[in-house]
TrEMBL record:
One of its GO terms (molecular function) is ATP hydrolysis activity. This is Fe-S cluster assembly ATPase SufC. Belongs to the ABC transporter superfamily. Ycf16 family. InterPro entries: AAA+_ATPase, ABC_transporter-like_ATP-bd, ABC_transporter-like_CS, FeS-cluster_ATPase_SufC, P-loop_NTPase. Transmembrane segments: none annotated. PANTHER family: ABC TRANSPORTER I FAMILY MEMBER 6, CHLOROPLASTIC (PTHR43204:SF1).
Length: 255
């Protein structure tokens, strides 16, 4: 079953006009793990923001479908309720809102949309504590304001906790591995692996192949200047690690 289908997506910065996505296409089926790699500035984070519905960008051509429906027509919160989860490179802080109430409201909004039973605070507490174990997080993080004063690594774990709680159909994770020490990286990877199943899909955006030692992708794509220029299996990630990105472009030029 196809979850996400992006075809020939072109997008620019809404106010000032620079083009960032220039014909990006990607199809993601249930059960798959995709990795998108690529040099700084190639448009990886912009892609996630556009899928999330960020108002700073304007789509000028192409389509994005989620389960066969036009995703671009939906508001950002509707996308989340449809089962799309996005973890940003720089997670937002929400002062004054506790992590647990934020998680519960998000969770219940999705349940409501999908016709599942909502959880009351006590039921949710049991559920979230069980999910905390997936990411090896201390329960004290439930009572703190969302991401406020969290270290870089704690924010990344918190993103995986959100994903574990919301159980999305599609998770798009933007550099969830960056800035993590090796233990945190293993935990984050274990969280992703635990949550991945035949009914959902994960798209990992990463600058380094390190994460891919722990989360094995079915497909690896190289994004350069706003589009995918090469796709392969996980061996492609190892080749990129060894040879950098230049050869992909040279290869392409020669082909
Ligand atoms: P990546 O995540 O692959 O490193 P980004 O998507 O963050 O790349 O950025 C791609 C390019 O688009 C960069 O050159 C960046 O400066 C530019 N860009 C992204 N967002 C904006 C914006 N709001 N205004 C101007 N330029 C932007
Ligand atoms: Mg699989
Ligand atoms: Mg980025």
């Amino acid at each position: 079953m196809t979850l996400l289908k992006i075809e020939n997506l072109h997008a620019k910065v809404a106010e000032t006009g620079p083009k960032i996505l220039k014909g990006f296409s990607l199809t993601v089926n249930a059960g798959e793990v995709h990795a998108i790699m690529g040099p700084n500035g190639s448009g990886k984070s912009t892609l996630t923001k556009i899928v999330a519905g960020h108002p700073a960008y304007e789509v000028t051509d192409g389509t994005v479908e989620f389960e066969g429906n036009d995703l671009l027509e939906l508001e950002a919160d509707e996308r989340a309720r449809a089962g799309v989860f996005l973890a940003f490179q720089y997670p937002i802080e929400v002062p004054g809102v506790s992590n647990s109430s934020f998680l519960r409201e998000s969770y219940n909004a999705i349940c409501k949309e999908q016709g599942k039973e909502e959880l009351d605070p006590l039921e949710f507490d049991d559920y979230v504590r069980e999910r905390l174990k997936t990411v090896d997080m201390d329960p004290k993080f439930l009572d703190r304001s969302v991401n406020v004063g969290f270290s870089g690594g704690e924010k990344k774990r918190n993103e995986i906790l959100q994903m574990a709680v919301l159980n999305p159909k599609l998770a798009l994770l933007d550099e969830t591995d960056s800035g993590l020490d090796i233990d945190a990286l293993r935990t984050v990877a274990a969280g992703i692996n635990t949550l991945q199943n035949e009914g959902n899909a994960v798209v990992l955006i990463t600058h380094y192949q390190r994460l891919l030692n722990y989360v094995e992708p079915d497909f690896v794509h190289v994004m350069v200047d706003g589009k995918i220029v090469k796709s392969g299996g996980r061996e492609l990630a190892l080749e990129l690690e060894e040879r950098g990105y230049e050869w992909v472009l040279d290869d392409k030029g020669a082909a």
